[in-house]
Write a structure and sequence with these properties.
Elements (H helix, E strand, L loop, with lengths): L1 H10 L3 H4 L2 E4 L4 E7 L2 E9 L3 H12 L10 E7 L2 E6 L3 E2 L5 H17 L2 E2 L8 E4 L2 E4 L6 E2 L19 H4 L6 H17 L2 H4 L1
Antiparallel strand pairs: 1-2, 2-3, 3-5, 4-5, 6-8, 7-10, 8-9
Helix pairs in contact: 4-6
């Protein structure tokens, strides 16, 4: 948590209100901050509610060293919030579907080999970092278990869910593969900005 503390202290007391918002989701907000000439994406998640607390725990747990998974430099728990410090990427709006497919399949193979399903593969959770596509946001990730039913009520964003998931079944790696297929189809059709 030392790097997070130094970065946030340098931004002043109202750093979150003044910083440009990079993204906002169900569990948290990501803002852009600068520190010593470098840009960081700072993700904050309130941990006061049951659902957001466990999403923050999953984010904390899913810190991996892989070419196609976002790099988290540091994190900490502070005043009922989880704060993560990440590298900054750009959205995939005009991405080549083959590059997205290869890179994100690499990330998913890495996760699945370690018994983890991401469960929220969508364009908003794929960013480009210097020509390399990386998977971000592990708030819905879960360990793979032998079951035919969903582990929680919320899995994958609506537009990226396979039919079986809508029926309350299948939460294994197939939901990640299906969602990535939909992302690649939309990349091919150049419809990413209209999908969500």
């Amino acid at each position: 948590g030392r790097l997070v503390r130094r970065v946030l202290r340098s931004q002043g007391k109202r750093w979150c209100k003044r910083s440009p918002v990079l993204g906002k989701g169900s569990f948290g907000t990501v803002v852009l901050v600068r520190y010593l000439g470098k840009q960081y994406a700072v993700k904050t998640m309130s941990t006061q509610k049951y659902g957001t607390f466990y999403a923050a725990v999953r984010e904390e747990y899913c810190q991996f060293q892989h070419r196609n998974i976002v790099t988290r430099y540091d994190s900490m728990w502070h005043n009922f919030k989880w704060i993560g410090l990440y590298e900054v990427g750009t959205p995939i709006k005009d991405a080549c579907h083959a590059s997205v497919l290869v890179d994100i399949l690499g990330a998913l193979a890495f996760l699945h080999a370690r018994g983890i399903a991401h469960r929220d593969v969508k364009p908003d959770n794929i960013l480009c970092f210097g020509g390399v596509y990386k998977l971000i946001d592990f708030g819905l990730a879960r360990p793979l278990v032998e079951t035919d039913t969903a582990q929680t009520g919320y899995v994958c964003s609506r537009w990226w869910r396979p039919l079986e998931l809508l029926q309350g079944k299948m939460t294994d790696v197939r939901c990640d593969v299906w969602s990535l297929g939909v992302v690649c189809l939309l990349c091919t059709r150049r419809e990413l900005q209209h999908a969500a």
